[in-house]
Every structure is written in C-alpha cells, then in structure tokens.
Amino acid sequence: MSAKQVTYQSSLSENEGFQAFTWWLLGIGALTFALLMSARMGIFQETLYKQFGKHSKEALFYNNPFTVCHWLDTLFVFIGTLMYKEVWNNLGITRSQPQKEDKKN
C-alpha cells in the first residue's frame, strides 16, 4: 500500500472508531508481548549457559546437508512472498495500461 492509496475518512461512526481503536490496542499488546517474551528467552538462554555451559558444536548435529528439498522449499517461500505482495497482479496491470505521454506546452 502506498501513500496514494490511503484515504482519510472523517465520517467514522462511533462503533467503527471503537473497533479501530480495539484493533490498534490488540496490535500494541501483541508487540509488547513479543518483546517481553524475547527478552525472557534471552534471560533463560543465559541461565542455561551458566548451568550447562555453551555447546555450540551440538547444533551441528541437527544440520541434515542442503538438499534439493531445501532448494524447493526456498523457491516455494519466495514465490509465496511474491504472491502475497501481489507482484503478479501489478505486473499484469502495468503491461496492459497504455503509457501516458507527457504534454509539453
């Protein structure tokens, strides 16, 4: 969405305004929860390192080699991102629209 697509509606009803404010509060609450949980996970990780030590080589055991399935999954994620951003639709619109010529006075 760009700034050209944003419209201002001054005629919001009281119910619509309350609903927008509720969604805004829900978003702020979710972001605050995520911030606090990530801080808690960092503290928990430090506690585990103190108790058991840092075993970074252990993580290498779980890393299976980069196979064709990994590349296929990467392709799916990339295509899904382009579909979500509606790149395909925007490319079709720009091709079908005639180009405007600049008028020189």
UniProtKB/TrEMBL annotation:
The keyword Transmembrane helix applies. This is Solute carrier family 35 member B4. One of its GO terms (cellular component) is membrane. It holds the Pfam family UAA. Belongs to the nucleotide-sugar transporter family. SLC35B subfamily. It is found in: Membrane. It is a multi-pass membrane protein.
